[in-house]
From TrEMBL:
Pfam families: Ribul_P_3_epim
Name of the protein described by the UniProt record: Ribulose-phosphate 3-epimerase
A GO term for molecular function: D-ribulose-phosphate 3-epimerase activity
Organism: Sediminicola luteus
Annotated function: Catalyzes the reversible epimerization of D-ribulose 5-phosphate to D-xylulose 5-phosphate.
Similarity-based family: Belongs to the ribulose-phosphate 3-epimerase family.
Cofactor(s) for this UniProt protein: Zn(2+); Fe(2+); Co(2+); a divalent metal cation
Pathway where this protein functions: Carbohydrate degradation
Length: 219
């Protein structure tokens, strides 16, 4: 895949001015919206539930990439399809029957992603990689924005890329956590296709310009 994707994470948006921030992303060079759903069980934080997600998807007019950091995600697959999610990512660590979950996501017309916590080895996807549209490599421990990037991510991305190529899969590699202008190019060079950026975008003085800067860096 040639086109590299920048996906601002709304977790870092200003919720007092959410519609303004969504419109900013709509008009920017960003490719996707990244939406983190946290349940306070799988991760030690709660983000937003269905009413807020409904308000977000009403205004967001780019590809909607939903990252579920929740236990038992199968319960909500249909709800996210109805909300307009284009990609639905579940955590490897939260799925007892990962293959079944992936099929259920696709049956609802979405692409299916699998996120890996920093401690989870990419080789656990050997038997499912051809069924996965996107692997989200967590480069922080999930739960909070604004954390420091884990350097081991580069080796992990390279190993995952090798697995994807060896299996002749068409899986995108997404990086989530601590992405900024300093590591973006190295991540793309390691094999990443999609960069999620929260704090780096929304905490900057000019988020539109920051998105543009990331796009220019990744090419
Ligand atoms: O999934 C996440 C944390 O669990 C977020 O997407 C992450 O918050 C990205 O934000 P930042 O760029 O601030 O690290």
């Amino acid at each position: 895949m040639d086109k590299k994707i920048i996906a601002p994470s709304l977790l870092a948006a200003d919720f007092a001015n959410l519609q303004r921030d969504i419109e900013m992303v709509n008009k920017s060079e960003a490719d996707w919206f990244h939406i983190d759903v946290m349940d306070g069980v799988f991760v030690p934080n709660i983000s937003f539930g269905m009413p807020v997600l409904k308000a977000i998807t009403k205004h967001a007019d780019k590809t909607i990439d939903v990252h579920l950091m929740i236990v038992d995600p199968d319960r909500y697959i249909k709800d996210f399809a109805e909300l307009g999610a284009n990609n639905l990512t579940v955590h490897y660590e939260a799925c007892t029957h990962l293959h079944r979950t992936l099929q259920a996501i696709k049956a609802e017309g979405m692409t299916a992603g699998v996120a890996l916590n920093p401690h989870t080895n990419i080789h656990l996807l050997e038997d499912t990689i051809n069924d996965i549209d996107l692997v989200c490599v967590m480069s922080v421990n999930p739960g909070y924005g604004g954390q420091s990037f884990i350097e081991n991510t580069y080796d992990k991305v390279k190993a995952l890329k090798e697995l994807i190529n060896r299996k002749k899969a068409h899986t995108l590699i997404e990086i989530d956590g601590g992405v900024n202008a300093e590591n973006a190019k190295d991540l793309i060079d390691a094999g990443a296709d999609v960069l999620v950026a929260g704090s780096f975008v929304f905490n900057s003085s000019n988020p539109t310009q920051t998105i543009k800067e990331l796009k220019e860096i990744v090419g």
